[in-house]
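Query structure, 384 tokens:
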């Protein structure tokens, strides 16, 4: 029996993780649930999965819930609560399904407590890849990818020596605006972004998929997960989202992982790894697949992708700045304050103005993150 802590249980990945757990009650149980604020969904989850600890980052919501579950379930709040959620002694695996840089401290705490990390929260690895992977190595902790592309690569790499790998081919759906030109992109709104062709996801990653910042974040995520150089990571647009990513080996052979676009598959693999379990997420029917197509991403239009490569290659705190500026810009776009194309402008502005320090300590990253958030907020204010 593997006991799972879910950070971000009420979101898209969190709820799909609970579906996987519910379908395999003899294999998994829920030790911890956490969410940003209380809602009826979280209460349903508590009733159904009976976790030992529940954490809400919103303090007043946690107080209300604590009254309701007094004497039955331990309820904690705030960032300290989230750290408790990450290190709960009963958990074997911590599945990080919260959004953004907020995942960094709890992920580091879980690693120090020697929990296996099932990582969905890619922003953490983007912002602090060196620190997180170093901590994982020192603590002999595995970081198992949940992101579908990285899960695909991870699956392809089973039994493969990294010295045999020439490059990783990250596939991208291209997002809902793949065929639009710059002029057309000026007027797209939030509701247009949220109509993603193949995946249904949380709001932030849905906007990231439309700007291709998501693919940029994934390039940096892959660099750290698989310890490869940026020259060894290629992005290829595959609008059908059936090939979830590929690995090219030094002898020219290419390995790919295919499946229907359903996040429960990589989630389940992260939880059962290195074993597999039967699942009923739907199966590929090759007699019905008309074609697989591939194209180059248009980085003149979707500049967030090339800026992610640039930030990654510069290294240090640049990826952290890229991520922070993007987080703030996406929030502003979602609340109707800025236009779609402003998101990339705001990232550009932060990357151009950032003055790197030599060290990549946690303290330096926290400072860079705060600096970029402030800078992005100023840029947004000047636009509105
Ligand atoms: P979501 O917005 O649907 O859910 C986020 C969850 O985290 C919610 O439970 C929310 O209450 C909680 N949360 C949000 N902000 C928080 C904070 N500051 N502190 C604590 N809890 C917080 O998001 P999602 O789409 O499930 O994505 C989660 C993560 O997984 C992201 O990093 C995303 O990039 C990654 N991811 C998602 C998908 C997908 O299909 N949704 C695929 C690959 C990777
Ligand atoms: Mg992905």
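Result returned for the query:
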């Amino acid at each position: 029996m593997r006991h799972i802590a879910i950070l971000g249980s009420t979101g898209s990945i969190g709820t799909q993780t609970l579906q996987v757990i519910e379908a395999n009650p003899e294999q998994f149980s829920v030790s911890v649930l956490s969410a940003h604020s209380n809602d009826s969904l979280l209460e349903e989850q508590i009733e159904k999965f009976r976790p030992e600890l529940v954490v809400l980052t919103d303090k007043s919501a946690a107080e209300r819930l604590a009254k309701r579950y007094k004497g039955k379930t331990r309820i904690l709040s705030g960032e300290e609560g989230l750290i408790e959620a990450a290190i709960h002694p009963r958990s074997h695996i911590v599945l990080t399904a919260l959004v953004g840089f907020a995942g960094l401290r709890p992920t580091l705490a879980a690693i120090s407590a020697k929990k296996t990390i099932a990582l969905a929260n890619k922003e953490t690895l983007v912002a602090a890849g060196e620190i997180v992977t170093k901590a994982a190595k020192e603590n002999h902790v595995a970081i198992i990818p949940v992101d579908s592309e990285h899960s695909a690569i991870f699956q392809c790499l089973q039994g493969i020596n990294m010295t045999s790998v020439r490059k990783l081919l990250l596939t991208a759906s291209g997002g809902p605006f793949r065929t639009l030109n710059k002029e057309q992109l000026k007027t797209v709104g939030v509701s247009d972004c949220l109509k993603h062709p193949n995946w249904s996801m949380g709001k932030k990653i849905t906007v990231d998929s439309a700007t291709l910042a998501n693919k940029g974040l994934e390039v940096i995520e892959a660099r750290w997960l698989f310890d490869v150089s940026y020259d060894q990571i290629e992005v290829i647009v595959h609008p059908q989202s059936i090939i979830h990513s590929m690995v090219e080996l030094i002898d020219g052979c290419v390995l790919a992982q295919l499946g229907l676009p359903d996040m429960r598959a990589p989630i389940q693999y992260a939880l059962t790894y290195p074993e597999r379990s039967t699942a009923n997420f739907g199966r590929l029917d090759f007699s019905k697949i008309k074609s697989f197509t591939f194209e180059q991403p248009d980085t003149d239009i979707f500049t967030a992708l090339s800026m992610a490569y640039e930030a990654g290659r510069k290294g240090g705190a640049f990826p952290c700045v890229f991520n922070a500026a993007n987080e703030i810009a996406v929030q502003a776009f979602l609340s109707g304050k800025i236009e779609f194309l402003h998101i990339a402008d705001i990232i550009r502005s932060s990357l151009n103005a950032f003055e790197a320090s030599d060290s990549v300590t946690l303290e330096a990253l926290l400072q860079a993150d705060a600096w970029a958030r402030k800078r992005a907020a100023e840029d947004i204010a000047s636009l509105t």
